[in-house]
Amino acid sequence: MEKLIQRVQYANSLLCVGLDPVGDDAQVARRLAEVIDQTHDYAAAFKPNLAFFLSREDGVKLLRETVQRIPESIPVILDGKFGDIANTADHYARFAYDIIGADGVTVNPYMGDDAILPFALPGKMVFVLAKTSNKPAHSLQDVALTRGGSLSDCAARVARKLDEEHGGGIGLVVGATNAEAVGRMRAISPKQWFLVPGVGAQGGDLQATLRAGLRPDGSGLLINTSRALWQAADAAAAARELVEQINQFRPVTV
After folding, report:
1. Is 47 a catalytic residue?
2. Which of 32, 74, 201, 224 is deepest in the core (most CB within 10 A)?
3. pTM of the model
4. Catalytic residue among 81, 124, 131, 135
């Protein structure tokens, strides 16, 4: 997480720029370059969504080129929501880190520690799906457990335990569409970083999310925005405005 922390402090930003490219291949390659070049001054991290690249004939090549365009000082989180047993997860990790050059990934913890630990390598970040931003109610995540709490609470506790055992680098994915859940996740995981999708097109409440999820030091959240920046006539202005909105509610800024 050191690279992320340094970047957050340097840029005074909690903005994660999501890259979910839509359009024909020529248009997408051009727009990806524009969004990266226009937003990197304001980005704490970039998050390319793997599915939006794999659906293209030369998607892996485009993804590698995209990551290479991002300044080295800015962490790249590959949003693949990987989730398989250890032997297979090892190969996914090699793809994400060695082939693509990502600094971190998102992981589905349904198959247990085996799905998480192969990605928790030195110098890498893992964000474990806990409470996601999709609607309506989650038939799995909201299941109540006999020992108390929900399945999403259990995922957060598992991630916290692994983070403590492995010296950091493991955070959570927590959607902004449910501020109450963000607060509950923060109570369970007071020290970990959260990757937070759902602000913008999905209707998440930015102010409520920040109040519920920020750590006392004014950090601990990466607020992801994708469509709002991709569709903006001036991506730099849109990114700058969002960073300013976020920083209004941070108790501590650089």
Report:
1. no
2. 224
3. 0.93
4. 81
